[in-house]
Design a protein that fits this description.
Two copies of one chain form a homodimer. Chain A is mainly alpha-helical. Chain A is built from eight helices and four strands; from the N terminus they run E-H-H-H-E-E-H-H-H-H-E-H. The structure holds a DNA duplex (30 and 30 nucleotides).
DNA sequence: AAAATTCGGGACAAAATTATCCTTTTATAC
DNA sequence: GTATAAAAGGATAATTTTGTCCCGAATTTT
């Protein structure tokens, strides 16, 4: 007698194309979490961060190193150490700052078709069409700051981790299922 | 006696993050070129396409296969063969159709932070901020069609290839320079 | 001082994207 | 028919992105 079980697992792979790289997505999520905890006077560890935002631990460590070196986040070693952002800086740090540090500003400045030379004088076919999109994205990234982004989180209005899985795989064999879910 | 030479070369590597994948960029450029030539009653070959849009030949072949299988482009084998798009279909095929076939629609539908579950009811912190950008991008991609995109090209108002190089590398040694540029 | 905890950073591994090579198939022209 | 020109498609390689492992450095607690 065999049953149909299903096992669910998160995947960390970047979908064919998203707006930001995985590095940047994790970085933004981490920064918002740190911002929220900093507002509450808490310093938080890498372990806690990767648990809360559902990101791979060691990869997140590299990203936080980058943000720390960029001066966007403060780090402290040793027990009781961790990451934090001074409250007074929260409203000054924008989404743009995070993206710039991790992905660069190609996304708002580059040509939509990847041409090196694409400008008003020498436009690609979608140059005009792309203007508005790029301008919106750029304005949004400069407007959104860590204070605003983290208050929604603290109030429970927004979320940083998906409760729902990305990939669902069906497994008939109970033993196989248990070997994966144990 | 040594001089300072510089050698210039195009790079086909995707920058850290752009709006579309390289595959999609080449696909869009190829489709617009084919559209323009089709308007002039010409069928064009892979070789001509990759020369005109400055894309790697074999990679472009794969992309055109995908577009052909998706029914967006017609292909014909043999001498005088090549790629074309029936004129009457040009205004019906949108940027969205090309992107959808090559990259999927994740870019306008997916969460900006990569969360699997991100919606009005369970939003990520940047969900509201991203709405406008995504909507603009989606609307633009549905609005822009191959007829419009290719007429600018035919009239010489827009370009599909960069005259200007992406990377510049300085090389002092004349022998090294010659070995590269020969 | 020793132990424990946490970040820093180098080396390495896996996966996805980007790109190349080469053979087969199909159609045209001679 | 034969040669030729072009797309189709399989296999493979290079590069980049994503992710892991492990050890060292710094800081706090005991």
């Amino acid at each position: 007698m065999s049953y149909l079980y299903f096992v669910v697992y998160l995947n960390h792979k970047r979908s064919p194309i998203e707006m930001f790289s995985k590095k940047c997505e994790y970085g933004i999520r981490a920064a918002i979490l740190i911002a929220g905890e900093s507002l509450k006077g808490q310093r938080i560890s890498l372990k806690y961060i990767s648990e809360q935002i559902g990101s791979p631990n060691a990869f997140t460590a590299k990203i936080l190193q980058t943000l720390t070196r960029a001066g966007l986040v403060d780090s402290q070693k040793g027990p009781t150490g961790g990451f934090e952002i001074p409250i007074e800086k929260l409203s000054q740090i924008t989404l743009h700052d995070i993206v710039e540090a991790l992905d660069g500003s190609q996304i708002y400045n580059g040509c939509g078709l990847g041409l090196a030379e694409c400008s008003e004088d020498h436009p690609c076919p979608i140059h005009e069409h792309f203007k508005l999109v790029r301008a919106d994205l750029k304005a949004m990234a400069h407007r959104a700051n860590l204070l605003d982004l983290s208050t929604g989180l603290i109030k429970g209005f927004t979320y940083l981790k998906t409760a729902c899985p990305k990939k669902i795989k069906f497994i008939k064999d109970k033993k196989v299922l248990n070997s994966i879910t144990e």
